TrEMBL record:
<dbReference type="Pfam" id="PF00582">
    <property type="entry name" value="Usp"/>
</dbReference>
<feature type="domain" description="UspA">
    <location>
        <begin position="10"/>
        <end position="142"/>
    </location>
</feature>
<dbReference type="InterPro" id="IPR014729">
    <property type="entry name" value="Rossmann-like_a/b/a_fold"/>
</dbReference>
<protein>
    <submittedName>
        <fullName>Universal stress protein</fullName>
    </submittedName>
</protein>
<feature type="region of interest" description="Disordered">
    <location>
        <begin position="145"/>
        <end position="166"/>
    </location>
</feature>
<dbReference type="InterPro" id="IPR006015">
    <property type="entry name" value="Universal_stress_UspA"/>
</dbReference>
<dbReference type="InterPro" id="IPR006016">
    <property type="entry name" value="UspA"/>
</dbReference>
<comment type="similarity">
    <text>Belongs to the universal stress protein A family.</text>
</comment>
Length: 166
């Protein structure tokens, strides 16, 4: 993907493949388009070792991160990514890398919470750390509002411990 032109507003967005991060990616693209800027998409992964736990021998976290990034871009843009889009996959502490990526950016956009299943990608603590230490304004995209009925009940399917209620 092409690098942004100098002087063009740059919007940095962190993704992890979660639906929430795709929402953040879409919001970041709306901002970039409104400002005539470019989109700088970062996926950061980190291995967090747990004593006694071993990853499968064929596990390739870099490959998995690339697949998660590709899936997020496809979910947001289909086959038509925006012009000037730049992607970066990094290994390290997500908040540190995103804070550094925010240098010179017009805005850093993150979901309020990321995946918990793919260890070390964006977590709620990352958005909190970035909002406190970024070098530019930070937009934290909340989860979509859930519709409430006139009685105050939340619309949608009810679940019971991860299963649909009867």
């Amino acid at each position: 993907m092409s690098a942004p032109e100098s002087g063009t507003p740059r919007i940095v967005v962190g993704v992890d493949g979660s639906d929430a991060s795709v929402d953040a990616l879409l919001e970041a693209q709306r901002l970039a388009a409104a400002l005539g800027g470019t989109l700088d998409v970062h996926l950061v992964w980190e291995i967090q070792l747990v004593p006694g736990a071993f990853p499968p021998p064929d596990w390739d976290p870099e490959r998995d991160a690339g697949q998660a990034l590709s899936a997020a871009l496809a979910a947001a843009f289909g086959e038509r990514p925006p012009e000037g889009l730049r992607t970066t996959i990094s290994r390290g502490q997500p908040s540190r890398i995103l804070i550094e990526a925010s240098r010179g950016a017009r805005m850093l956009v993150l979901a309020s919470r990321g995946l918990g299943g793919f260890t070390g990608l964006l977590l709620g603590s990352v958005s909190a750390a970035c909002s406190a230490h970024a070098h530019c304004p930070v937009l934290i995209v909340p989860p979509p509002a859930r519709e409430e009925s006139a009685t105050g009940e939340t619309a949608g399917e009810e679940t019971t411990i991860g299963r649909k209620a009867p």
